[in-house]
Amino acid sequence: MARILLVFPPSAYRNHTPPLNLAYLAAVLEKDGHEVQILDLSAFHPPCTPDEAIAIARDFNPLWIGITLNVIFIKPAYEWIQKIRTLKIPIVAGGPHPSLLFDEAIENGCDIVVRGEGEQTVCELTRALHQGTPLDTIPGLVFRDDHRTIRNTGFRKPIADLDELPFPAKHLFPRHWYTDDSPTYQVYGAIFSGRGCPAACTYCYKGVFGPGCRFRSAENVFEEMLFLNRTYNVTAFEFMDDAFSADLDRVDQLCDLINRTPGLDICWQCTTRLDLTRPDLLQKMKKSGCFRIFYGLESGDQDTLFRVNKHLDLNHAIQVLEWTHTLGIRTIVGFMWGFPWDSPASVKASIRLLRTIAPFVDEFNPLGILIPVPGTRLFEDCRNRYHLDHWWIEDRFGRLYRDNVVFPYFQRRFYNDFALLNDGFFPYSPQVRRLIRKGTSFIGRHNVLRNTPLYRAIPVLGAVMLSRLLFLIHPRLEQFVFGCLTTARARVRKKRTR
Ligand code: B12
Ligand code: SF4
Whole-angstrom Cα distance, residue 84 to residue 61? Predict the structure, then answer.
């Protein structure tokens, strides 16, 4: 038996629920008899500071330290890896970013990289490190050998039968690290019911799950729901799959299983594509507790949808939103802005579509300025023209995220990606930029007016305007005024509750 420490590195994002990647890895390692400790340093209430984590790792003295890496916060993660390296315990990296850029991860202090899905690889790796046997027969690894030469054992085949995986080890993620439960959003409610997506959008990274999709059986997914319900009293589930309804029959079976179980009072939400559903299935989903669906629509411009390989028929998409909304399922719709080829006409087409679908949309996603993720076709098409190589470790973008940890109020309330629009990846003409701002402001206003009673919406909209004005005068002025307002509001609330 070995001890293993798995870490979600520090970042400017806050995890509201346990990250399922570490939870899956911990589950297979525990199943093999190992002792696993987790530190989610990006949790909403992190268990310790990044420096304290190093002391904890020293005391725990694991066989290896595993770190999950993704593109956005790679820089602070690499900085932290340089510190924890001093412990001289092997650092194993995995996740979307090192699956592609394994040599970069090794250069930045990782000893071993696990490429692609990690469950089988980590079990074999642990056995080998424990017994001191060679690593070169284990597929899915990149490491430096005794001569400091980088060895690559090739990609491991995707897991064929996902039902064989144990359920994620959520017991290793204490509840108090995360946000409070609500009737529709619960800390332990996230589930992956399959891996991958049948589509191939050019901005979407496929380097972990590969092309196409694999599904868990409806029975296996339902068993996990029952387990979470009994163990943690979860009554609200969130399917994190890229395209939950890619297999319509399986969703149908899952709804049957839920509907046929007496006394099971649950609700659930999912993400899927607008061309992967049917009205009768939506009805069944609603009956089995589906209360919200996130659909990615991305653009109102047919040419853009074609160029990003989205293949959505806009008329059908509008129809599906109407069906969903009419059934009483909340709709949340994602739009992307700032394609490198965007013109005033393409952005206006998206704004027109926003207006058309607004009656059937409960929320628009308040994020979505295009990020060219390495390993995607879009990135490859643009990398030379827009000098995109290594943007993830250039200070420009690191600063962009780190300095905006405290976003101005108008951004937090309206649209979180404004910073990316102002100082982003692609040069937009002033007219395109203005129109994107118009579209994203529409989204912010819609979300407030749709989901807040009018007597509260009006002050919110006023505060957004004030915040924007102060920010334009000077960002620090906005920070000062809204900082004072937030403190005053907290005091009033505290007094009232006394
Ligand atoms: C849920 C999710 C989120 C949630 C995160 C919640 C959370 N903390 O879990 C939210 C909404 C916050 C989010 C935000 C963003 N996300 Co996101 N997200 C996802 C999503 C849909 C699922 C992640 C997941 O749980 N996967 C399930 C697990 C089992 O898979 P996995 O993470 O890949 O882990 C496996 C392997 O990678 C490996 N592994 C992973 N970590 C480790 C560690 C070790 C030590 C080892 C050995 C192995 C290993 O083993 C795991 C098990 O097989 C993925 C898409 C996807 N299909 O994975 C995108 C994805 C991870 N997101 C992505 C992006 C781009 C973003 C955003 C930038 C979007 C935006 N514009 O804001 C932000 C950035 C957030 C950040 N923190 O950096 C990209 C990342 C690309 C990249 N190269 O890093 C992905 C892959 C989407 C895509 N297809 O392009 N995201
Ligand atoms: S539909 Fe979503 S998950 Fe599937 S390829 Fe396109 S962006 Fe990726």
Answer: 12
